[in-house]
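The record is given unchanged here:
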Amino acid sequence: MLRVRPIHVTSHLDQWSRLLTVLGMVKTVDDGEWQEFDAGSGRLALRRADPGSAQDGNTLFGVEVGDLDEFARRTNEAALEAEGAAGAEGAAGAEGAAAAVVDADRGRTCRIRARDGFSFLADPAAHGANCADADPALSVVAVWFTEDTAGAASTLRSIGARPRPVPDNDETADFTAKNGGVLMVRPGAAPGRAGLGFEYSGNLDSLRTQIESAGWDVAATEEAFGRTLQVPSPDAGTAAHHPALWISGQRPGI
């Protein structure tokens, strides 16, 4: 299995919890310092941070899997195949990933390292299917920013993510996970930086009304490939700059 599940680290856990509930997500895990919310597609974890700490307001790119050892084996096998295919075609540097099962602060996990130096965790899923009460139109989106977009895309293919069409044939790449959620690769100068957002396949105007009725400000932007709602981040009051949380209308046919 493969499910998108980024981790957002924040000192504003209660505010995030309220906003995610307004978006139609359902809290499925809560141990005080760690919470998990299910969308119709994908999952988001919140981890408490001390106010003003270096991690406060940061998002960690991440996924959930079933059997860690089997996932690591398949990921490394797929990366070697990609390397071999690239070599046969005379291309350079197409290795996908190096996966290793390790012990982390929350237990056994699998660390995936990409060729740009970025690494992320594939954690064992705490529970299986997404909550049936979550809004089925909402998908969690995790974004990987890197100068090596081709290498990041190769890594995501190696972990079993499924490519989907993107509007422009540029340095961007989009993927879906078999068990829910969207993974995006976008150009960026800082390896290891991750972003968080959502896609919505339902009526964005209705969602906007739902968010505003709960007391949140919402801005809407018209883009070449659709509309996006922007909601102030609950982290906006911290010292670091935190962009608005975005919810994009899902493009037809993807």
User: Anything to note?
Assistant: The longest helix spans residues 68-88.
